[in-house]
Amino acid sequence: MTHVDLWPRVEPLLSRIERPARYVNREWGASHHPQAEYRAVLLYPDTYEIGQANQALGILYEKLNALDDVAAERAYLPAADLIALMREEKLPLFSLESCAPVASFDLFGITVPYELTWTNILEALDLAGLPVRSADRDDKHPLVVGGGPCVYNPEPFAPFFDAILIGEGEEALAEMVAVHRSARAAGSTREEVLRALATVQGVYVPSLYVPQYCADGSFSGVDVADGAPFPVVKRVVADLDAQRSPTCPIVPFVDVVHDRYALEVLRGCTRGCRFCQAGMVYRPVRERSPDTIVRDALAGLACTGHDEVSLTSLSTADHSQLEEVLRRLSRRLAGSGTSVSLPSLRVDAFSVDMARLIAGTGRKSGLTFAPEAGTQRLRDVINKNVTDEDLLGTVTRAFEAGWRRVKLYFMIGLPTETDEDVRAIGSLVWRVLDAARAATPPAQRGSIRIAVSVSTFVPKVQTPFQWEAQVSLEEVRRRQQIVREAMPRKGVDLHWHDADVSFLEGVMARGGRKVADAVETAWRGGAVFDAWTERFDLGRWLGAFEEVGVDPAAIANRERSLDEPLPWEHISAGVSRAYLESERNLAFCEQTTPDCSFTSCTGCDVCGDLGVDIVVGGVRS
Ligand code: SF4
Hints:
This protein has 621 residues and is α/β, with parallel strands linked by helices. It has 21 helices and 21 strands. The strands form seven sheets. Strands 2-1-3-4-5-6 form a six-stranded mixed beta sheet. Strands 15-16-17-18 form a four-stranded parallel beta sheet. Strands 10-13-14 form a three-stranded parallel beta sheet, with helices on one face.
């Protein structure tokens, strides 16, 4: 096939826009196979600087390029200045590697990272010259496939995708490509291709699941096409060690959000925080072995030339052999000017020891702790198994060891929260400040800073709190005021997650397919880059909901009864509904559940149902 090269049309525009280097190809590590028989383009629905750091896309890019006669390229959403010029010049969205029109590829893969990128996805489809709805696309269009962390309630964006992969993509994406190629070789129609894709475990084809409604407009369930799986169960990789991380990932020309070599050291988290969707949907815990981690970290640093390796996961300090990994890396990297960083640390003494160890590699990692709630009662409700003493002890050790700044994460609006719980956030920060001062020599106390970040709880699907009401906007503002009044003024930097944004996230998180009409209406009305504070406009969204007849407050701020059908129940993350309900009951009894990685199985069913095991300390159990 002859491929169109749009570079002669792109290049003249680069002198008229900001940061042109982000649209220029041939970064170190990029793949070029323009003549491959099957071509896929993977898009992150935000600008290059944000998307390039996405590890999952990097993994899938490498996996696809390793397949026989398959080429994967990348695309990002251009910034507003280039979008305006592209629309003026009628220039379609292009891939980075071969500067080919995205619409000319066989597969257009789009990651769905979080709710506020949905309008960016529509912008990308439209810029590519593709109809934004799957129902309006035909055989001449690429297969538009979604995936990523935000797919566990796909309904509010389902009509925009031909297929959505639920779960981990390392093995599933190759299977999808194989099915697509053979279906096309057999001369299948688009509908036949989609039906064939639905046979791949983890693949959700929205057109095969039609939502049904009662006379009053409320959701009553889905009508499933013959032969389509119900529920669609997520894909999970059983042996993470066997799936090697990219050790020669792309090195960008421009500064990106995480400019370092990132290596995933474990997947999943079984601590069981009841509000945390990632903790539920990425189960079970699978650790990479120390040998694999050290080997790949050194290989990745050597290939990329980065001077920092970040050991990533949902909770890296939970890796059972992290200390060994850090000791071996410190030894191998000593004197090289290369540092090791951990993205976040949990609230215990072990974490400070880890932080001291990595400080020896050259740089002091920031210390970030997430007590989430101000009282022990509420921490028991959400199953955050840390105490005030854990936090204060950790802060004392950190400041004795020379740290002068810590960051604390809290949430307001959690189920059962009272004003006393909210006020206690301020009291706890006072005590942290006192502990930090006591552990710091008097001459240095002026440099103590406690950054406090307070977000609003958004109930997420596939968690024990998926039935709960999100507190209203007015109530959030009242509770924010309580926090403000209870907080120390000096030495503390207080940050809020915007309440309006949390409200919209709440609507998107648990909305049904009708919400897709509002997403499209908001986008047609100018909503794009909603995650950028200066672009976010709740008024525009409320207008869109009104126009399509959807009440956003009835989605976000309403408690569901346990017998109400939920719009996402044809999607399963593997954790049983019985477990979610039992965890919900325990929450209201203020009882905690231990971490199954370190005790025994607590019965979430993911291991048995998906045929996978927890892998901790090199042992499958
Ligand atoms: S099935 Fe048991 S061991 Fe496996 S993740 Fe769930 S609680 Fe843990």
